[in-house]
Structures are given as C-alpha cells and as structure tokens.
Amino acid sequence: MSRDDVAFDHARAARIGLDEAVFCAGKSANQIAAILEGAGDRDDGLLLTRLNPEKLEALPKALHDAIDYCDLSRTGFFGRLRPVSVTGKVAIVAAGTSDAPVSLEAVRTLRHAGVAADPITDVGVAGLWRLLDRIEEIRRHPIIIAVAGMDAALASVLGGLIPGALIAVPTSVGYGAAEDGRTALNAMLASCAPGITVCNIDNGYGAASAALRVLHSMGITRS
Amino acid sequence: MSRDDVAFDHARAARIGLDEAVFCAGKSANQIAAILEGAGDRDDGLLLTRLNPEKLEALPKALHDAIDYCDLSRTGFFGRLRPVSVTGKVAIVAAGTSDAPVSLEAVRTLRHAGVAADPITDVGVAGLWRLLDRIEEIRRHPIIIAVAGMDAALASVLGGLIPGALIAVPTSVGYGAAEDGRTALNAMLASCAPGITVCNIDNGYGAASAALRVLHSMGITRS
Amino acid sequence: MSRDDVAFDHARAARIGLDEAVFCAGKSANQIAAILEGAGDRDDGLLLTRLNPEKLEALPKALHDAIDYCDLSRTGFFGRLRPVSVTGKVAIVAAGTSDAPVSLEAVRTLRHAGVAADPITDVGVAGLWRLLDRIEEIRRHPIIIAVAGMDAALASVLGGLIPGALIAVPTSVGYGAAEDGRTALNAMLASCAPGITVCNIDNGYGAASAALRVLHSMGITRS
Amino acid sequence: MSRDDVAFDHARAARIGLDEAVFCAGKSANQIAAILEGAGDRDDGLLLTRLNPEKLEALPKALHDAIDYCDLSRTGFFGRLRPVSVTGKVAIVAAGTSDAPVSLEAVRTLRHAGVAADPITDVGVAGLWRLLDRIEEIRRHPIIIAVAGMDAALASVLGGLIPGALIAVPTSVGYGAAEDGRTALNAMLASCAPGITVCNIDNGYGAASAALRVLHSMGITRS
Amino acid sequence: MSRDDVAFDHARAARIGLDEAVFCAGKSANQIAAILEGAGDRDDGLLLTRLNPEKLEALPKALHDAIDYCDLSRTGFFGRLRPVSVTGKVAIVAAGTSDAPVSLEAVRTLRHAGVAADPITDVGVAGLWRLLDRIEEIRRHPIIIAVAGMDAALASVLGGLIPGALIAVPTSVGYGAAEDGRTALNAMLASCAPGITVCNIDNGYGAASAALRVLHSMGITRS
Amino acid sequence: MSRDDVAFDHARAARIGLDEAVFCAGKSANQIAAILEGAGDRDDGLLLTRLNPEKLEALPKALHDAIDYCDLSRTGFFGRLRPVSVTGKVAIVAAGTSDAPVSLEAVRTLRHAGVAADPITDVGVAGLWRLLDRIEEIRRHPIIIAVAGMDAALASVLGGLIPGALIAVPTSVGYGAAEDGRTALNAMLASCAPGITVCNIDNGYGAASAALRVLHSMGITRS
Amino acid sequence: MSRDDVAFDHARAARIGLDEAVFCAGKSANQIAAILEGAGDRDDGLLLTRLNPEKLEALPKALHDAIDYCDLSRTGFFGRLRPVSVTGKVAIVAAGTSDAPVSLEAVRTLRHAGVAADPITDVGVAGLWRLLDRIEEIRRHPIIIAVAGMDAALASVLGGLIPGALIAVPTSVGYGAAEDGRTALNAMLASCAPGITVCNIDNGYGAASAALRVLHSMGITRS
Amino acid sequence: MSRDDVAFDHARAARIGLDEAVFCAGKSANQIAAILEGAGDRDDGLLLTRLNPEKLEALPKALHDAIDYCDLSRTGFFGRLRPVSVTGKVAIVAAGTSDAPVSLEAVRTLRHAGVAADPITDVGVAGLWRLLDRIEEIRRHPIIIAVAGMDAALASVLGGLIPGALIAVPTSVGYGAAEDGRTALNAMLASCAPGITVCNIDNGYGAASAALRVLHSMGITRS
C-alpha cells in the first residue's frame, strides 16, 4: 500500500476544529506507515490511538522514533506537539485503577490539542468519602469527563453535584453482568441525574473530542 | 377447574419457613378462586401477589370480601393475618416515587409473615444529601432491602456505607437504555461495592422472602 | 398518598442549576397531584414530562387548569413560566416528521429554563440537499441537538460539518432492525465523526438538560 | 479425509450461474486439500475465501503454488482464472481504510467471475466532501456495493443519491457499541433511504455474488 | 400542523427514480393530512404505507375518499395511479398465508410504480413439492422477492435454484424463538446459498424499492 | 486433586440407561486423570468429550495410551469398548463439511453405547438435489439426527419429508448473523415443519443421548 | 380471500404421518374460514391452534358450531374426531398451574391424533416431594413431555430420573429475568442431564408432534 | 506508577466490616505491586482475586514470596492471615467439578476473613440422590452458598429444601445456550423457589462477601 491509497481528511480539521486521529486497531503496520509518511509534511503532528506495542515495533525505525508513545493508554504523538494553551477547564474523574487506560487516552488526546486536563482518580462511589473530599476541586472545572465501568454509579452521583458539562465514558472493566461495558453504558444513559451525555465504551478519545467541542462553544479554540 | 386440580405445596412452609404465595399474574380468576377455596380451612392466611383489580373483581363475592387488597402493590391478604412479631430489623430503602409498587410489595410480604419493615423512600443518589441525611437510621437495621431502577446507583452507594445484609431489587422504571429493568439488574450484579445480592426485576416478594431467610439465619422465626 | 410522602429535591436546582422535572410515566395521577400541590408555593414553575392526556384529565381541575400542555411532546408547564433570556445558542436539528415529539420535548424543556431554541426539521440525510441548504444556519449555533431514529446517519453527517457541542438523541422511530431506537443509539455512539455525545432513546428532556450544562460551562446561566 | 468424502456441488454453477467458493474458515487444511485435488480436473478454477496464511502454508506445495493469494482479503484463486469480460458495471464504495479486507474480497470474487469492479475508497460521510466529489463517477455504475462499519451512514447517504442497485455490506470495524458489526448491519437494514439491500457482516463474497445475480438479471452472463 | 411544516423530498424522485412514500406508523392523522394536502398539486399520486384503518378514518373526508385502500397490506394509493408499464419481471414468492400482508405491501408498492408483479404463495419448504411444482415459473422472472418468517428456509432453497436477483424479506410471523422476525432475518443473512440480499423485517415496501433499483440497473424505468 | 474428590454418578447409568460422559472442556488434566483412575475398575469404558489434544498429551502415559482418540470430534474412548449391538436405526444427516466435528461426536457417542449410526454428509439445501437423491435412504431410519449451521434450513426440509423422530443439532459454523450458532438454533426451534426437537449448539453428544432415549422408548437397550 | 387462495398441504400428512394444523395467530377470521371450508370435504377433521375466542366468534356460525373448542389451550377440533387408539405411552408433566395452557395444547394435539396422554401437574421442583411421589408413575411411560417455565429445573431433575424419550417445552410464565421463556428455553438446552430435546417456547403443539414422531419410530401409527 | 497513585479505600473496612480485595484482572503487575507495597505496613493482610499465574510471576520476588497462592481459584493471601474464628456457619454447595474455581474463591475469601466454610461438591441435580444424601448436613448451616452453571437447577432444588439464607452464584461453565453463565444467572433470578438471592457470574468473592454481611446481621463479626 502506497501513501497515495490513503485519503486522509485534512480539511476536516479546518472545518470543525478537530484533528482526525489515526485509529490503529483496524489497520496494519503498513497502512499506518503510509498514513504517517503522508502526514510528514504537515505543520502539526498527528495523534495515534489504539496502537499496540507490537504494531509500534513493526513500524520503520524513522517513524517509530518520531512517536512519543504511552503504553498504558496505547496512544502516540507523531511529529511536532502543539504547546499547552488551555488549563483548568477539563477535569477527568475516574472511578478505579482499572479505568486508567481510558482516562489516560482522554488526557493525551486533550494534550495533543493543547489542553492540559486535571486527572482525579480512584474516587469510585463504593468509597463515597473519597469522592466527596474532592468535589469542590472537581466543581471548579466547567467540563467534567467521568470515566467508570461496572455499575458506573460515579456518573450519577457526579450528575447530582456539578452544574457544568458532564461527559461520561463507560469502560469495559468487569466481567459477567458488566457485559463488556454495556451495563456501564446503559446505566449512564439511564441515569437518574439529568443532562449526562455519553460516549462509546472505552472511548477516551471521543470524550476528549467532545470536551474540545464544548471548549469551541465556550469560544476557546487553539491558537 | 375444581380445587382438586391444584396441588398447593403446604408442606413447604413447614420445611423452609416460607409460605407459598399465590402468584396471580399467570392464573385465571377461576384458578385463583380454586386455590383460595382450598386454603379456606387452613389456620394461617394466604398472600396474593400480582393480583390486578380486574381479576380481584372477577372473584366470587365471598372470596373478594375476604381479601385485604392494596392496589399500589397489587397484593392481597386472604384470611387471618398473623400479628406483628418482629420490628426494627428490616429497612426498605427506595430511590424514587415510581419504585413504590415494588417496595410496597416487599413491605406487605414481610407484614404477612409478621415482620414490620421500615420504609425509607425518595433517597435516590441524584440528590445525595437526602440519602446521607438518613444513613445512620438505615445502618441501625441488620437487613436492608434496596429498591431502585434505571442506573440503580443507590445500591452501590449503600453497599459502601452499611455492614449488614444488603438485598437489592431492580425495578423496571425507566425507558430506552433502562431496558425494562435489565440495566438496573446488571448494574446491581456488577456493583463496585462488595457483597450485594440481587433479586429478579420488580420482585419485591422475593426480596422480602430473602429477608425472611436472613431472619431465620439470625434465629428469628415466627412464633 | 399525601404530599408529605414525596421528597422532592428542590435543593438540586440550587446546586447544579437544573430544575428537577416531574417524569410522569411511572407515576399515578394521585402521585402527580401530590407533587404539584407541594410545589404550589414555590416561585418558579415546574416542568412535567411524559404526561399523557389521560393522566392530565385525571388531575383535579385547579391543577389541570394551571398546566400549559403540549400534546405532541406530552409536556406541561405548571405555574409561572420564566421569561426567555437566552436566544440563538441552541439549534435542534431533526431528521423527520416522526421525530417531532422528541425534538419538541427538548424545545419545551429549554423554554422552561428560559432558553429559546431554533428548530430545524425534516433534514434527514436520505435527502442530503435539504440538510446542506441549511448547514450555515446550523453552524451559527454553538450548541446543536441532533434528533434522529432508524440509522441516525444525520448525527454522523453533522459531526463532520460543525465544530460546536453536538448532543445526539436517538428516537424509537422505525421497526424491525431499528430495534426500538437501539440501532440509532448504537450508531450515534459508534459514529465515525469525532466528539458526538449521546442521550438515552427519546430523551429530549435529557438533551436539553445537557445543553443547559454547556450553557453553564459558557457562563450563561439563568438570571 | 480423502477426496471422496467431499460432495462438492458443481451442478449448482450450471443451475444458478454462480460458482461455489470454498469457505475455508471452518475447514482444516486436510479438508481444503481434498477439495482442491477433486477440483483439479475441472476447466475453470476455484475461489477460496477466508483462507488465512497459516492454513495456506499447511497445504501441499503443489496446491500452494497453484494459488494466487491476496493476504489483505484472505482470498485465493486456484487454477485457471477466467478472463475479464465485464467492465464498468460495478462500483465498490468503501468508507474507510479498515474496510479494505471486505471490499477487496468483493473485488476478488467479481474478478474470479470475470467482472472487473471499480473500487472507490475512503469516502466515509464524516468527511462528506470526499464522497460528493466522486458521486457522479459512482452514479455511472448500474450496481453499487457499499462497504461500511460502525454507523454505516455511507449506505444511507448513497441511497439518497444513486438510482441503481445498492448492495450494502456492514463490516465488523469498530468496538463497543459497534457490536462487532451488528450496529452497521441494523443501521443499513433500518436505513431512511429506500431500496437498500444488505448482506451478512464482512461478507464481501456475498455482496459480489448478489452483484453477479443482478448482472444475470441484466442479461450479462459470463461467456 | 400546517402543510408548511412538512419538507417533503420531491426532488429525490427525480434524483434516484423512487418516489418517497408516506410511512404513516409514526405520524398522526393531522401530519398525514398535511402531507397529502401538500401533494395535491403534483402530477403523480402518492403511496401510503403502514396506514391503519383508525388513522384512515380520522382523515378529512375529501382525502379519505381519494385513497384506494387495501386493509390486508395497510397501504393506500392517493391520487392518480400510474398505468402498468412493466410486466413479467418480478415474482413475489411467499412461504405461508400469514406472510400475505408483507408480500401484498410489495405488490402494491410495485404497482404504484407501474410494475405488475406475479405473486406465488403458500410454497413454504415444509411442503417442498409445492415449491418444486412452480420453480420453472419462478425462474422465468429476472427478479425474485422471497417473503418468509420463522426459519425462513424458503430463501435458502430458492437461492440454490434460481440465477437472478434474489431479494429476501423476513416477516415477524411466529413466536418464541422466532424472535419477532429476527431469526428469519439472521437466517436469510447467514444463508448457505450465495448472493441473497436482505431487507428489514416486514419491509415489503423496501423489497419492492430494491426491485425497482434492479429494474433501473436493467435499463427499465417508468415512462 | 485426588480421585476421592470426584463424585462420579455411576448410579445414573443404571437408573436411566445413559452413561455419564466426561465433559473435558471445563476440567484440568489433573481432574480428568483423577476421574479416569477412579473409573479403571469398572467393567464398561468411559466416553470423553471436548478433549483437546493439548489436554490429552498432558495425561499420564498409561491413561493416554488407554484412550482411542478422534481429533476431528475431540472424543476419546477410555477402556473397554462395548460391541455394536444396534444397526440401521439412526441416520446422522449433516449439511456441510464444516459440520463434521459435531456429527462425528454424535457418531462416536452412539458407537460408545453400542449403536452403529449411518452418516450422510454434504446434503445442505443450497444444493437441493444432493439431499433429494438420498431421501429414501434417510427415511428408512426410524431416528434422524440433523446437523446444520448458519440458516439450518436442512432441518425444516427434512421435517417435511420424514415421519420418524427428528433430533436437530445446530452448529456454530458461520460468522456475523450466524451468531455463533444461535441463528441455527432459533431457526430449528421456529421451524415451519412440525415435531422437530432441538439440542444445544454443537451438542453432538446430547443428540446421540436423545437418540438413545428414543431407542429405549422403542424397547431397544444395550445387552 | 376465497378458498382457492389457500394451498393447504394435505399431502404432508400422507408423507410424514402428521396432520398440518391451522396456526390461527397470524391469520384473519376470513383466512381461517377459507381454510375450514376447503377442508370440509376431507375425511378426517382439522386441529386449530392459537385460536382466540374473538376470532372464534367471528367465524360463520356453521363453522363455529363445528368446532369443539377449549379456551384454556385455545385449541379447536373441527369436524370428525379420530377415536383414541393409543394409551399409556405419553405422560405430560407440568411444573405449575400457570403452565396449563401449554400442557393442555399438547394433550389436545395428541388427542386429535388418537393418542390419550396422561397429564401430571403441579410437580415443580421447589416442592420436590410432589415430584418424587409420582416418579414411578411417570417412568412407566416411554415418552415424557416436560412443561416448565422460569428456571425450568423440572426438566433437568426428570432427565436424571427417567430413561425414555424426554421432550421439554419451555413456557413464557414469569417476568423479568424469565425473559418471556428464553431463560427456561436456554436452561433446558444447557441442562446438566443428558439427552433432553427441546421445543419452541409455549409450543405444546410441537411437543405433541415430536411425541407422535417417536410413536412412529416405535412402530405405532394411527389406524 | 508509584504507590502514591493508588487511593486504596482502607476506611471502608472500618465502615462496613469488609476488606477491600485487590481485583487483579484489570490491573498490570506494576499496579498490583504498587498496591501491595502500600499495604505492607498494615496489620492485616490483603486478599488478591483473579490473579493469574503469569501476573504472579511478574511481581517482584519479595512480594511474590509473601503471597500464599491457589492456582485453581487464582486467589492469593498477602501478608498476615487472620486466624479462623467462625466455623459451621457457611456451607458452599457446588454442582460439578467444573465449578470448583468459583466455589474455591468463595472458600478462600471467607477464610481470609477468618471464617471456615464447609464445601459440599458434585451434588448436581442430574444425580439427585447425591444431593438428597447430604441435605441434612447442608440444612445445619444458617448460610448456604450454591454454586452452579448451565441450568443452575441446583439452586431451585435447594431453595425448596432449606430455610436459611441462600446465596446463589452462577458459573460460566457450559457452552452454546449456557451463554457464558447468563442462563444460569437468569434461571437463579427466575427461580420457582422463593427468597434466593444472586451474585454476578463466577463471583465467588461476592458470594463470600454477602455471607459475611449475613454473619454481621447475625451479630458475628471478626475479633
């Protein structure tokens, strides 16, 4: 596959202010390499998501070395990284240790867009006081991303405590009745707290993109 | 259908200490009448569940008049009602107004067995302080029945706050992703709080029966 | 049921800036009447959702007459209506005529909070030019609510054309493989366009609440 | 297993004008070898689908060398390849890079039957202009195969723009709410555009066979 | 609702050669009346699907009288009916008596477009000879619509016997494991016979539209 | 684990005339070895099902050597094999090559019980004449086991052609809408042909056991 | 609809020894009347299943009066009833009172074929001794039909106690996790007892037909 | 990841009397090591669940050697083990050999809390007498944990025979219609025996925690 076979949608960034990321899960190393080579001439860098270590290793060395990789979130920054221009606007609140890959994917996606997010972890509602101890800190952010699996009760409790935009991401943590994240997804959608919006299971990238859209609504765009 | 066609399991009560109730949903008025007539000679009365008003009206007048009916929970007490012999042991905690039919079915089932339960309602986690205001009162009971639909987050929050037996009942309240109670059911099963046990959707009768089993374990049986 | 049995969460409005609405689907006319009577002394009015005409008729006349009812969206405004204080911020884009009940529920929920939304209807993608003719008008709003059933392709097409917050609401329009709205829900969640967030099926109220949260993030709150 | 154990349906080709292909996924290398040996005496070659590289390697060398293999689509041509006799009739339109294995399986199945298809790739609706730029080229074909995963919105948009036969193939690309292709499948079935027909998930072979059936309807059969 | 509120897509007919039909299931009588009044000035008539008798009766008398209604298929022809211009091209093969509403919807949709289809009924495979007796008659048509519920085995058997375009429509006939037509749908999609394409459950309208697309591919369009 | 930890139900064979087989899929090699050692003293041998080659290799050599293993069906005969005492009573009819593991499991289970079954393979309905050519041979058996995956149309066609006991086994062959065999299972359950009974997916052992039960009903039991 | 539109499969009875019954659920009263009129000249009568009282009342009086109707099972005998020729061969064992409609459909289907079945009711395993008290009586029959809903544990317990043909019918009794009979269906299919075969949910007719097939295998056919 | 990144909820043990266990399935070896190091200074030890051997081997040697590991249940005791203080209160009843990993997880969780449970295995209802032989022994325990997969009939039979608290755990044993344990889960929830409560699939830890809660209700807490 040559780079000519890939029609990357660079115009979309101009149109909607969101870079297209390279979702690597369904692509071969050859396909990813072709996309990266095609992107080499652009000013801004490229975000790679769902890039597993095996595929990273299979890339040509020059490409491999140009990637700033995080193995917990399986994300990579390729090329020039935009400086941080937005801080204090987005909090990423996660229920447990096992949710880290997803919340970190959101952190990294926002960082790639120049937004520094504030992570707040291990505040699942089974230990309610951990959450209540930090609720004022959370409330200071106009945008909250809530990451939780299993029963996803964190999203409902937050929904009753904060006034700002609340973007919930279910995770596939758990087994049996957790149904690979569908239970968390449905519980967030059917939450008793009003105005929670939801992303796909494990979709930290999507939650970060939704946060960027709200930043656009707030008039905050990248410099 | 004559009363001879119905093999009611009276021996089960002696064996396991739980009366068989008459689940009316799948039975015709004729079948229910046959069962009630057969039960007329017994000392203790009979509990009827899922008895809708139409079926109640279709019963012969003598049977109809012998039933103490509650239309919100669709339960009926037929015949002699056992006096209350147990108090202060079971709290029934419900998330919202719409959960009342289920929590009331549990209250009535326990009452039929001589147990007075303490109902605590409208303490859903979207308004967290309503729950926290009453948590000490809840904790004083060795057995808690938690009734909630939609995201069922109430069960998880309770699970982190009380040490006693926690019996969760999902309700079919809600729409769409609430999936007729399956989301609440799965969220309770996959709860991040340990040791929650779960009954079938809308099964207030089952939760009360489970509470009676725990009372048996505690050495508390009806006189 | 007396009004004392209902613990309405008035404090939540102060805490998160969203009024609790009365979800009528799971409540009896008696329960609704108790809530409305309890709310009579408050300054601001009350929003009722999923109120079918039969239940409306069953309310006491004084309550009935105090409700401004819309039968297409099955919503009611009870008591004093807040004046419009926000305009031009929220567009509600709907795919077809059958989606009107849901988009109208969103319009009315926003109106109750003092926000006048701009509805744009019948722009499903099967007739793509209808949508493209109005895309600039849509783009002028910082917040878009997209309402669509069946394949829900409208959300994905919008996602590639607008930069602002995009809140998608699947509807239960359709039959067979539409799966009562689950296909639209899943298609919105799995959209190829980034940053779309999703509400429960037919949840126009929830989408409007999410839009209010983004308005809070933008620093726009009711006077 | 000897070749006598396999009852290959050669008569079907004569009856319906479609060769039976060898679906290798559920067969051992031994079973595949037995089929190929039995087919050695026939005039026309044989198409193999879902043949993974490991199984290919496990075949006897003579058989292995007689196979023209494509690893992206996992298809093989065994024996004599029919010359191309039909051009310009079938376009294969794919949403993204990850859909290539499925669209290529369709291309190869048609090629095996003597039909040269025109592939048009990376025209997913999230970047709508990429599709609109090529819509006239697509419209010139009487038969369109649309390949898309996740939300499958491409099929609906195409359905509103082209008059000819439209055969949609959902792919299993995506995760979570994509449900291994079921969301794309259902979205195509419930499309708001009329007259779209659908094949099984990832079934490029089936879509090509359906295209061949339409060619039969058009009076175009292989020489 | 006035007629101005409805943006009917008349341009689509010109673009893709398929009239938009009025899907009445999700619309009120008022909405349908608005559409019909708006269509009154057009040259060609309008097809109504899923129009139940109650809604038909609720239409204004002038509109009601202008509709040629079929209660078995719940379809109506409004206004001028195009003359038949195509015959002998489409056979509609149905498994059982209970499938008649769906096959008749297909017959009527084709008739509205000027195509006379040939219905062949009660040829389910449990009585295989009924089908084999008529197979030559079926094979003479270049386009076959196969209508079947429950196990949908008819589609697979036909798939092995006819060379032309085969459009399968699952029906919701049956109970239990028939899963409201999903079993028939899945069985058709997973058929062992190649090149079968499938429409949504009970979608006779869609199958007819797909047949019209194949007629377009064949160069047969309405005069 | 010692052999004392395993309570094998030898009495069941005497009670119902069916040996308990060792289902190896959920057991470790140690557990299987403990069972086999415990069975060493019995007169008759033991049937092992779902025994994969890795587990077979992990058994102690003496046990390994005492097993007559078939890798296609993953079954083993341990110890003395009962002689054949019943012939011509059971036909096992399979749709395709990929169904062989399941039909062979049934053949081997019957053989272990002393019954020689007649396999008839590759008679799927997509090539209907292959089946019709052998239908008289099939009809001569009082008991038919039908093995098929995907659409499972074979069972329905057989159901209309044979009068005897018809035991259908769905297989997990196929992909996508085949749903790991659930589509075949449901299609068999919802068959339009009367009196078909169904076993679990891929359960050749269960089908053979059911055939043995019918042989018991016929008065044919092992000597 | 005239009687000429209905192609009833009378030949099937001759071929497989099972009469085609009229499944009334998906048919209009007109369609049923046409079938009955067409059947009037035949020697043997006709079985009607799923005939609800409203449809029965809507039949012409002459047809109505010729039907021996049972409202609990919703079955009817039309015309001449074959005398009983087989006794003591089939037991129908049902778990509870609510299963009566299904077990009675089986009883009536067998009766229509000249077989008198022995019903044994209210022997669900929650009161195990009721079942054990009658197990010897059950074991005397070579064919057992087990009817149960909810957990369907009756089938598994019977499977370990009887040697003959065991045909299990799940019923849709129950709610919530009973999933309209799918739980009973799956539990019967996945039973720990060997050789149980299963029919569709609530399919008493199918179970009786399967029993007739086993009687055919036993050489017992109607005179 | 340093130990400071992990907010372990030590306070929960004091609040509800249940130690938080380390669920290892979703955590990396590094994350587990950080938790264990943080726990080193505590008085009581720590329970690890779902710890597979590969992850155990990847831990630092000092941590590895401090773990008392059981490979069948994949549980580990880290650090000081509390002495046994409760005996004769909890029986763990398992249907088959394949259920051992789950029942053993329950045994080990209870042991970690100082409770010695009595395991009773291989008493599945397909061999009913095995269960009845031990029923008096089972009944002597006030708390029963029932572990079963597939049809889970064991729970229903026990429910009719014992009066005490009955905690049912479905297991993922089986295939096809066993649906990875969902069938057992649903059968337990829909049981015909009253008062059974249910845990998540394969959740031996949760069942043990529920038993500890009942012990709390009984006034039995760890010294």
Question: Could you give a quick summary of the protein structure above?
Answer:
The structure is a homooctamer of 223-residue chains. The first copy, chain A, has helices at residues 10-16, 29-39, 53-57, 61-65, 100-112, 128-132, 135-139, 153-159, 182-189, 204-217, and strands spanning 22-23, 46-49, 67-70, 75-78, 86-94, 115-120, 143-148, 165-170, 197-198.
- Strand content range of chain A: 15-25%
- CATH architecture group name of the largest domain in chain A: 3-Layer(aba) Sandwich
Strand line-up across the major sheet of chain A: 6-5-7-8-9
CATH fold-level assignment of the largest domain in chain A: Rossmann fold
Rg over CA atoms of chain A:
18 Å
Q: So how many helices of chain A? A: 10
Identify the overall geometry of chain A: globular
- CATH class assignment of the largest domain in chain A: Alpha Beta
Query: Could you name the ranges of chain A where pLDDT drops below 50 across 5 or more consecutive residues?
Result: 1-6
Number of domains of chain A: 2
Question: Main sheet of chain A, how many strands, which sense, barrel?
Answer: 5 strands, parallel
The structure class of chain A reads alpha/beta
- Which oligomeric form is depicted? homooctamer
Intertermini distance of chain A: 35 Å
Reading the helices and strands of chain A in chain order gives HEHEHHEEEHEHHEHEHEH
**Which chain pair shows the most residues in contact?**
B-H, 40 and 41 residues
